């Protein structure tokens, strides 16, 4: 009876705290725009973008900013610290150069700590904790918007050899802090979904294993409890869109080793969110969930969370396409077949790696009934037909823009000949492919890897166009797409 009474009190305390934390979380979510760092509004951020911000915090007596290392390319690695508590919390981001979402969120969090709001909550955090941020661990990769560093290695597989200066810096900082808690901040593919659902895994968590047996000690257990807490918070803002990353032990990975070295390590992976290509909503969710986690660490209420709840978070699947077309009829060599198509809109960087354009691909076809799409069209009763080349050519891109693109598409034209295509142009400014004078429309032979360009017809009428993997409803007023392609030959 005594044990039951103690458990009841613990549950009551946790319930009261959770309710209080959710109230704070709602306030964090609602007031986010006050703290969002306005200079970091896109994914392709670079080392130079961070330096004015780091300098601002370096001049601020609330913070300590120290250079703790240098990348292979000579770019500085900086650690920002705030707080005076005995418990050290260490957050690092962008170990992979093309995974910037949490880097942006870190500067939002720093702005929050520099504000005059939430004084009671900030006092609880900063008096009990010392919080350390190492944003953009791989600045050379960020410059090229690529996963690996200039040595061509994955820093997250360098925890044993410690050959990269970036990995060596991470190890040295973790050891010098003897960090109690660590947040390993990444982005994952937007094509992950929450297990057996159509919902994207907008945020995925993992308490990494520290051995092949996947044992759970107090260090890893604490990470699991904090993840349960964060998941409960996020369900309000992204219901059903939280996943759990596979916990197979990887002996070379930093997360697994930092867990083994005694730091309760939480991996956060930012995935996909509908109509959020720059991941700004996901950035906001990072901000809210990380601050909420820091607060529960400061209050130590996470200790009462039932660890078994961790396994109830659905695992990640990778079963999403950008566009899924269901049940379309496809004619090949005189026979008719029913196909589902899975199409992904693949990003291609411009040379400066500041912006991107799309060169889409058919990713899979056949029976895709176990897959999902960010956008899905039931094309039952529709026939897939080839896109035609418009018979008349125009002289310039300016002339191309003057044409009635919707009318051309409604007549089945997906290609427009332009006599003078500027060499600097990499993609079409209109929702038709721009092609050279000698271009001939390719035979329609659907297979994975090709650029998806075709039409859907029903009862003899063109109803939809797929141009560069983007679906256009020909009955809609808006027929714009991010870009079509240029084929010069």
TrEMBL record:
It comes from the Bacteria. Residues 59-158 form the Peptidase M14 domain. Residues 1-21 form the signal peptide. Pfam families: Peptidase_M14 (PF00246). GO terms for molecular function: metallocarboxypeptidase activity; zinc ion binding. Keywords: Signal. InterPro entries: Peptidase_M14. GO terms for biological process: proteolysis. The keyword tRNA-binding does not apply. This is Peptidase M14. It comes from Maribacter algicola.
